[in-house]
Amino acid sequence: LVFFSSLSEDKVWTTVYHDLQMQTSVGGNSLEKLSVLQLNYSATMDQISAITSSAEYCEQFISYSCKMSRLLNTPEGNPYTWWVGKANEKHYYWGGSGPGIQKCACGIERNCTDPKYYCNCDADYKQWRKDTGMLSYKEHLPVSQVVVGDVDRPGSEAKISVGPVRCQGDRNYWNAASFVTSSSYLHFSTFQGETSADISFYFKTSASDGVFLENLGNTDFIKLELKSATEVSFSFDVGNGPVEIIVRSPNQLNDDQWHRVNAERNVKQASLQVDQLPLEVRKAPTEGHTRLELYSQLYVGAAGGQRGFLGCIRSLRMNGVTLDLEERAKVTPGVKPGCSGHCTSYGMYCANGGKCVEKYNGYSCDCSKTAYDGPFCIKDVGAFFEEGMWLRYNFRSPGTSIKDLVSRTLLSSTDPEITAPDLNLNKEELSFSFSTTKSPCVLLYISSYTQDFMAVLVKPSGNLQIRYSLGGTKEPYNIDVDHRNMANGQPHTINITRNGRDIVLQLDHYPPTSYSLPTASDIQFNSPKALFLGKVIEIGKIDQDIYKYNTPGFTGCLSRVQFNQIAPLKAALRPTNASSHVHIQGELVESNCGASPLTIPPMSAATDPWHLDSASADFPYNGQAIGDGVNRNSAIIGGVIAVVIFTILCTLVFLIRYMFRHKGTYHTNEAKGAESAESADAAIMNNDPNFTETIDESKKEWLI
């Protein structure tokens, strides 16, 4: 194989291998001053160079294991060992470092075995040491040679490991240009496609027609255009008269979404394909001209007074060469480099409230306002809490006024109702996942500068309770979820939304259910102060039940915690602007807690608090509910029938045994050796030679 592509961590890696074995030994009283290790790759250097040049990122692992064998001879000596990269250039930096820095990874991180040196091996110990890391300056890759010195002394030994070259991303994939007027165009040198042409690109437009590209000769030409909102045309003339191939789409192509065009022509045939629509093919005539002779420049966009393309074109490849649309667009009026509007096509991939952000050559997902992480905001951020640990997120940071904080963070919203500077919350959204086996405990508590608070608790029974105290009532308003033990070690997800007096609660995969604060209750959460996880450490008066549940504290996992625009666990585990708001008691160990809740089997109506009573619910069908009396009669009749059938079967068994009890000897299928076997299973194994074979067969793993 020349190279191998694999998919991992949401990325596609292209890997090129070589023939040098890992941990290749060098030295051991060698008479040679230098040992040269040559790496032969499964692809040519030109092929590897094409891969690294077009990739966004490349890396290659390199390792030097040593025993009395110095590596770079730091801090100021001449290196004993170096590696050779692209263009046969020598490089004196090692994995984990960078060009021009004569250090190993430990020298960069300042954790070398001997701090006087910048590589572990430079300390010249008689014990085995190692310097490893990734080479990631792709302009220097791949490693073609490793030259090892300092292995000619008695006792000197070294082992070299070099990994394959791994690259990911395509720099050209988002090489794009925006054509903003119908007369805009880019021009390039004449397309050299005499006997074969392979053209591919992506386009996005809201216009109904326009020329993508055109190149002319005296009479010959080649052209690709959007003829209508549903038609793409590929036309050319090699001297036998014009030929046109049209692909018609059942859907609009001017929908401001990306569409791919691939056009090919050779001496035998020509073809055109748009997206995944059927390939349109036209055979070339058996006689006549076959060479496409072009002389003018290649025009991308408007040409010869024709109406040009309006929109974006990216990743334009002609006979394997990607045209640099962006560089040419920088110096061309009417054309802009890059292409805005990526979020129109790909914004839906930013999950869990992540915001799609337009970038110069693509897009990214901003997860800063979510409790998630990763390129698409789908990675849970959570932590394991040991007994006595707690986290406090202060809504007000040192030096920040409450008014500034509320307007910037806690109340971040376009809703004018909650951006008012009155420091009160009329609505809030809370979501998180947890798992625990201990009860009672406080999962989450939000305090205030007044007596208002909100809490999510696990009661001694293991049931969940949401508690609101917003003033106006003597006792807090409690929502008790009594249908199952939540302290069962399984992950559970809670979503709580309050808007004024209305509260909506969703637990795990159950449908949401609605509650309402008492009429006497205030509907504003006044002056929120801090959010606690695991335990409440707050001065002043605390609700009596919360005080009791607070000891010894929560033990278990909490993940993807989010209150409005605040993600306290993420702020604690990821360096963000909000990290200064966090105080932690104990050491947080990151974990996602298996945050996706298990599917819960259906429960009976009697124990299911989400069950809708037939008298008060609207069912999605027109049938009528069966009365209780009918259900009761049916149950009685069924029970009688079951008893009768059981009695008849027992009688038959008794009669059969009575009739055959004196019929003489009989044979059984008992396994030989059953008398001496310790168990029935042992008897079967002793008697059946295929039994062991069956077990072995079931344990085989089949690799496909």
From TrEMBL:
Does the entry annotate any disulfide bonds, and if so which pairs? C312-C339
Domain named Laminin G: which ranges?
Answer: 175-339, 407-593
Task: Enumerate the spans annotated as EGF-like domain.
Answer: 340-378
Q: Which residues form a coiled coil?
A: none
Q: Which SUPFAM superfamilies match?
A: Concanavalin A-like lectins/glucanases
Q: Which residues cross the membrane?
A: 635-656
> Organism's domain of life?
Eukaryota
GO BP terms, alphabetized: cell adhesion
State the membrane topology: Single-pass type I membrane protein
For this protein, the record's PROSITE patterns field holds: EGF_3, LAM_G_DOMAIN
Q: Which GO terms describe its cellular component?
A: membrane
Per its UniProt record, what SMART domains does this chain match?
4.1m (SM00294), LamG (SM00282)
Q: Which Gene3D superfamilies match?
A: 2.60.120.1000, 2.60.120.200, Laminin
Q: List the keywords (alphabetical).
A: Cell adhesion, Disulfide bond, EGF-like domain, Membrane, Repeat, Signal, Transmembrane, Transmembrane helix
- Where is this gene product found? Membrane
The record, for PANTHER family, names: CONTACTIN-ASSOCIATED PROTEIN-LIKE 2, PIKACHURIN-LIKE PROTEIN
Q: Which family does it belong to?
A: Belongs to the neurexin family.
Indicate what this protein is called per its UniProt record.
Contactin-associated protein-like 2
